[in-house]
Amino acid sequence: MSNKPLSNKPLSNKPLSNKPLSNKPLSNKILLIMRNTYAWHREHIETLERMGLEIHLATGVKQAAADGRFASVIPVPEELEGESMAAFCADEARRLGITTAITFYDSDIAVTSRANQLLGHTWPRPQADAISRDKKLQRTFLTEHALPAPRFAGVTGVEAGLKAAEDFSYPFIVKPSALAASIGVSLVRDRDELERALTDVARLAEEWGGYFPSDGPEIALIEEFLPGKEVTLDGVVVSGEFHLVGVTNKMQMPGPYFEEDFYTLPFRTPEEEPELVAVAEGIVAGLGVEHCLFNAEFRQDAQGRYRVVEFATRMSGGQNYRNLREVHGIDAVRLYAKAVLAGDDAGRRAAVLDGEVRRAATPRAATCIKFAYRTGTLVRNNPGDAYHSPYFRSYIPASKPGDRLRRAPEGWYEIAGSLAVAAPYRGVEDVDRVERIAAELDERLDVVMVPPVAVPPAVRGAA
Ligand SMILES: Nc1ncnc2c1ncn2[C@@H]1O[C@H](COP(=O)(O)OP(=O)(O)O)[C@@H](O)[C@H]1O
Ligand SMILES: [Mg+2]
């Protein structure tokens, strides 16, 4: 994707004076903070609309002003970051008579929590969001709370990485301490590969500038390799209590690069759910979060025990939300929105779960997200014939005609788009089936590429 998420400077942790919010009537206005992009969150926004909320959007996206879903659009000046951004959002909210802010975007979670604090709420935990944004802080947090994580070392650059590697045995993982979508994550088998991987991370740290927390000198992590099965868990925390939404199967890649693809539901081995939920509850308790969406990725170690790869106070991106809803009959975004609107009000908080459909006892469908990986120059990018399939649910384009798409390690996560499909669920074999359906429909997308051409040196010289 071409849009680079903006940065998050560390936030002030100043205590706040607290005006009681209680006896005011519940506002139907909400400030949605999505600085860089909200194209992946159409369904999330639709849920807010269905709840009858008047949505005011704070964003840097230029075309937003023409978007009828929003009651108003507040352009966010590019230079704002961290505390200044939070103060700006809180001021704009007050001006509009809005008491609550919400976000679905990774790099805005800490700012949104801080804005909510400035609006007088005591429930937000910007420090928990800051931990979510930094893998080194996550690793330290997990160790401190005796939660299962891979062994790791944070390193400041290539030199330090080569030194730290003496305590690890090959192969192991090298990754940026603050990026997403598996960008820059690799499995290294020897010293040469390690040096190359660390050099790549250092370059990514330069390129992605703001996405890395600016005060963290440790740009990379070295980690024990977890060879087993990989899953991702989503939940919602209401008044400090964790509620499972679902566990998604992820494609297992052997390395050296880890492209994301084939997210399927329901969980193939539901008997493992309690082990994962117990860890999620441990993280939530340790973070002390009150209201948030929650995601944790796990991978099994050589003994088959699940260890935390990463966690965050937000949910899995894109169509995972709709798939989780379709399969488990629970609407995470709706619960989260109800929770933040209830805020600190005890009575309202107690009522957040009232009238909500509980998680379905058995899965209602099998679903799959397939990323449309392509290489070359994108010419056309639409769902095409796939749209007419009964299995088709949605296609979100992630690139525009004219964009060049490459595979790892030249390009990371440069996908044409994301395809969501669903099929009936009767048994675990339907998870395999829905994966095959997704792969077939991917081929029927109207995604047209001009393939990359290898130009022979002689021709190049003649030109
Ligand atoms: N310690 C590890 N052992 C095995 N695989 C890993 C490890 N860390 C990361 N991976 C693989 O790399 C992917 C991306 O790593 P992750 O830490 O989740 O970064 P990102 O924030 O980019 O998603 C994971 O989904 C997993 O497949
Ligand atoms: Mg990840």
From TrEMBL:
Keyword Ligase found: yes
Record's protein name: ATP-grasp domain-containing protein
Entry's Gene Ontology molecular function annotations: ATP binding; ligase activity; metal ion binding
PANTHER family cross-referenced by the UniProt entry: ATP-GRASP ENZYME FSQD (PTHR43585:SF2), FUMIPYRROLE BIOSYNTHESIS PROTEIN C (PTHR43585)
The entry's keywords: ATP-binding, Ligase, Nucleotide-binding
SMART domains reported for this sequence: GARS_A
Pfam families according to UniProt: ATP-grasp_4 (PF13535)
Domain ATP-grasp intervals: 139-341
Region described as Disordered: 1-22
